[in-house]
Amino acid sequence: MDPKELGFTPQRPVGWLAPLLLLSTGVRTLLAILFGAYLDKRELQNSLDGSWFDQSVTEDGEMWLDYVADLGDGFHATYSVAWLLAQDRLTVDGAELPRGRVLLMGGDQVYPLASGDGYESRMKGPYRAALPEPPAGRLRPTLFALPGNHDWYDGLTAFLRLFARRKDGHIGGWRTQQRRSYFAVKLPGDWWLFAMDEQFGAYIDDPQLLYFEEAAKNVGPQDRIILMTPSPKWVKAAEDPETYDAIDYLIRMILAPTGANVRVLVSGDLHHYARYSGEDRELITCGGGGAYLLATHQLPEQITVPPEETLTRNKSRSRTYGLRSCFPDKAASRRMSWGVFHRVPTRNPGFVTMLGLIQMLTMLAMAGAASQGGNIQRLFTIPLSLMLVLIMAGTVMFAKPPGASLAHHTRHWLFGLTHGFAQVGLAVLGAWLWLNLPVHDWAWPGPLVVAAVVYWPVAGFLSTQVCALYLLIAGMFDVNVNELFAGQGIEDAKSFLRLHIAADGTLTIHPIGIDKISRKWSADPDGSQHSSWLKPDEPLVARRIEPPIVVR
C-alpha cells in the first residue's frame, strides 16, 4: 500500500490513551465547552444555499440507502466497512442487498481532531479507494454527512470545505450535494429524512430552524420521517435528562405540526449497534463505521423518552422503549472488558511510559524523604508533595470527565480517589523495595541509571495493570466505560445499516455486522475503473445483526 499510488497514507488506529493525545483532547474539549459559541459557524450558514433535496424519483419507486457513522479511525477497520459499502451488492445470510443510491454518514468522519489532512488520510482516501468511480452509465450515488463532536473541534471549517462548499464535489464515486451541516431529503414512498446539527449538544440555531421549517412545508400527514442526530440522546438522557430537549423541540415544534410521524431516530457517536423499540418508533444507534468498539453491557433494558425528569414544561408525551438488540451482545461485551489487562499496555506504549515515569519519580521522592530519617514531617518534602498532588489530581480528573452528570459526580470522585490511593500505594511498595536493595547505596549516578533502566519499565507495566483493574471495576459502575474500551482499541465488531424503501412505502432496515475486519489487502491493478483499488486477502463476511426491521 504505497501512499504515492493510493494518494493518501493509511493510518494506524488512534491510541486514545497516548499522553499527548489525552492532553490535547482534554484541552480542546475544554476550549469547545468554554468558547464553543464563538466557534459556532451554524449562524453563518444562513448565507449558504438553503434548499432541501429531492431523491424521491426512481425508476421503480424503490430506493436503497446506506447509513454509517464513526468511521475515520484506523485504515483496516475504516476500509473494511467502506469496501463492503462500495460493492455493487452484498450477499447477507442468503439475501442480495444492492448498494445504496444514497450514503448517509452520521458523524465523526475523522479522529481524533478535524483537519484537512485528517479527513484525507482517515476518511476521504479510504472511501475513494473503495469506490473510485461510479459504474459507467449509472447514476453516481449521493453522499450526505452530518458532523459529530470530532468534526466540530475546528469549528466545522474542514467539514464544510469537504462536504458542503465544493462545486461538483465528490468523494470517489460518491457525489456531495449538501451546502450546510444539516439537511432535509425527500425520499420515495412518502418518506423524508431530516438530519439535525446540535454542535456539542447546544441549542438548535435559528437558521437551522428556519431551514427545517421551510422543508417541513412540503411534508404532509401521510409522510413518515427518519430523523438523524449526531448523538443518541435517548440513551444519554438517562443520566442527563436535558440532553434530549433539542431533539424533542425539533420533533414537537417543527415536525409534529405537519401531521407526519417520526418513525425512526438513528445516530452514531456510541461505537456499537443498539436498537430500542416502542409502540410507534425505532431508536437506533449504529456507530460501528471504524472507530474503537464501545461496550453494550451497560445499556439499560428500558428507557423513557423524553425523560420524565426534564425541566421542559411542554415536552412530548413520555414513552417507554425496550432494548431489542445490540451488537456485540452483552455477554460478549463483558468478556471483551477483561481484555483490558493485555490490550491497554500493548496498544498504548506511551501511556505505559508516562505511568512508569510518574511512578519512578514518586518512588525516588519517597525514598529520598524516608532516607533522611528524623521527624515524619520530612516525608512531606516539596518533590514528594508535588508528585502526590499530581497523582491524585490526575486520577480524579481521569475519573470525572466533563460529560459526567452532576448527580453522579460523587461516584466519580470516589473512584478517582481510590485509583489515586492505589497508585500511591504502588509507589510506597516500590520505595520500600528500593530502600532494601543495595543499589540504593551506590555512588551517583548509579541509582538513577538503574531506576531508569530497570524500575521505570517494570513500574510502568505494574502501574498500567493497576489502571486496567481500576477501569474494569469502575466500568461495572458506569464510570470510565468509554476509557475501558477506548484503551483497548478493539477494531472488530463493526456495523452499518442498509435500508430499503419498497414501492408500497414499506421501510426495511437491515443491520449489518462484521465480526472480524480484514487486516491484509492486495492491490487490484487489472480491475475496472469503478472497482476497489484494494481487495481483502481473505473473505470479508457481513451478516445480519438481527432480522430485518420492517417499518410501515
UniProtKB/TrEMBL annotation:
Domain of life: Bacteria
Coiled coil regions in record: none
Keywords attached to this entry: Membrane, Transmembrane, Transmembrane helix
Presence of the UniProt keyword Transmembrane helix in the record: yes
Membrane-crossing residue ranges in chain numbering: 16-39, 351-370, 382-401, 413-434, 454-473
InterPro entries, alphabetized: Metallo-depent_PP-like
Name assigned to this protein: Metallophosphoesterase
Natural source organism: Paractinoplanes toevensis
